[in-house]
Design a protein that fits this description.
Elements lengths: L4 E3 L2 E7 L2 H11 L7 H7 L5 E9 L2 E2 L10 E3 L3 H10 L6 E7 L3 E4 L4 H12 L2 E4 L3 H4 L5 E6 L15 E5 L3 H17 L8 E8 L5 H15 L3 E13 L2 E12 L3 H12 L9 E6 L2 E2 L11 H15 L2 H15 L4
Parallel strand pairs: 2-3, 7-9
Antiparallel strand pairs: 1-7, 2-6, 3-4, 3-5, 8-10, 9-10, 11-13, 11-14, 12-13, 14-15
């Protein structure tokens, strides 16, 4: 749920003396268009492929340099494109093809420079600029980038830390070694901060816990808020002798509890203003009050405002799933 390390998009470099024909194939047959680097990285996720054309004459590159020639983004692995190139008789006009790893991306919290320094020293890595396309495409070693953004969506260059590393390891070996120590590496940036332990308690008088659970988990996963380490039914007491049934989620998160509370308040209210769920948040024995996230507003006004802020951060597919669950909840006793 809380992803700390993933691979970047793969890179496929195609060399040909018939650049115009290959470009036309990509644009017409596959309905693709060339992007500038910033646009391409914003559109490409971990399982995607960036295709670059390099036109040659007599074995020499002609025309624009590699980054300036534009990137084609394919939402599939390189082998899928290779099949199309062969089946459509385009492979015959290619002189050379080279597939390169697109590097690795690490999510950071706190002081990113401390994380970069630790990994650089442990791996004997050299530093590169994250905007130096030629450096991370040169095929020697494995490039590692750093970002404070969630890793479940494409990370644009503007979201990368300016410092990046070139590890003297092949991509698979680099991934395995980083994966073993990723929690330690990321935790080194927390300094005096730490991963916080919080508890989320769900209350619903109509008992639609399954639907609410699915809504909450969709948001936790979409925004990579934290890691659920335990869950189950529990009992709470609103006042003496008044016992309430609730479902509890225990989590660790790098976020401040008040920030998590603001997100959760957006899940308590439906679009029409009905409060369809009661969510309490605890850090240890301290209950995080809704007033801390209300900024002087009424509970309903704050909840509806946080609902809109939450929806703005979600991908369309996430919003559709949450809307469908909300409609199912409202079709019942509400």
């Amino acid at each position: 749920m809380l992803s700390l390390l993933r691979g970047g998009p793969r890179v496929l470099i195609l060399e040909t003396e018939y650049g115009a024909d290959v470009r036309l194939y990509l644009e017409k047959r596959l309905q693709l268009k060339a992007h500038a680097m910033e646009e391409a990285m914003r559109a490409a996720g971990g399982g995607d492929t960036l295709v670059l054309l390099r036109e040659t004459r007599y074995g020499r590159t002609i025309g624009k340099s590699l980054p300036e020639s534009g990137f084609f983004v394919i939402h599939e692995p390189p082998e899928e494109l290779f099949c199309g190139l062969i089946n459509d008789r385009i492979a015959a006009i290619l002189n050379r093809a080279e597939c390169r790893a697109g590097g690795l991306i690490i999510r950071t919290f706190g002081d990113a420079d401390r994380i970069v320094d630790l990994i650089r020293d442990e791996f004997g890595a050299s530093e590169i600029r994250c905007t130096d396309v030629e450096a991370w495409l040169q095929g020697r070693g494995t490039s590692v980038f750093f970002t404070p953004l969630p890793l479940n969506a494409p990370v644009p260059p503007s979201g990368l830390h300016p410092r990046a590393l070139l590890l003297p390891l092949r991509p698979q070996a680099a991934f395995r070694k980083l994966q073993r120590g990723i929690v330690r590496f990321v935790a080194s940036g927390l300094s005096d901060r730490s991963l916080r332990s919080i508890e989320l308690r769900l209350y619903d008088k109509y008992g639609l816990y399954d639907l609410h659970y699915r809504r909450i988990m969709r948001v936790l996963e979409a925004l990579e808020i934290g890691l659920v380490v335990g869950e189950g039914w529990s009992r709470d007491f609103a006042r003496v002798l008044l016992e309430l049934k609730c479902y509890s989620l225990k989590m660790v998160t790098p976020m401040k509890p008040e920030a998590v509370k603001r997100i959760l308040m957006g899940l308590e209210y439906a679009a029409d203003g009905k409060r369809i769920l009661d969510l309490d948040l605890y850090e240890g024995k301290r209950k995080i009050s809704w007033g801390e996230a209300a900024a002087g507003e009424s509970r309903e006004a704050a909840g509806l405002r946080h609902r809109e802020e939450l929806r703005a951060r979600l991908e369309p597919s996430d919003r559709e799933e949450i809307d469908a669950l909300e409609a199912e909840i409202l079709s019942g006793n509400w």
